[in-house]
Amino acid sequence: xxxxxxxxxxxxxxxxxxxxxxxxxxxxxxxxxxxxxxxxxxxxxxxxxxxxxxxxxxxxxxxxxxxxxxxxxxxx
Length: 76
Description:
The chain has 76 residues and is an alpha+beta fold. Helices cover 22% and strands 11% of the residues. It contains two helices and four strands. The strands form two sheets. The chain has a two-stranded antiparallel sheet. A two-stranded antiparallel sheet has the order 3-4. The longest helix is centred in the first third of the chain and has 13 residues, at 14-26.
């Protein structure tokens, strides 16, 4: 649940959040159930061409990344 200052990813990008959760479930990732509640902090501003969306405050770092595939192609 967010603190009310930022929308949830599922509210800002419902189709994307749904697809991420679906791909995570297909990989057996328990994180799938948390996707709907992730906050959306806006687009990444590291470069003008960065396409990442922030689900944590700018400057935060995570300890892992999950690469998601559909039909053998990287999609996220």
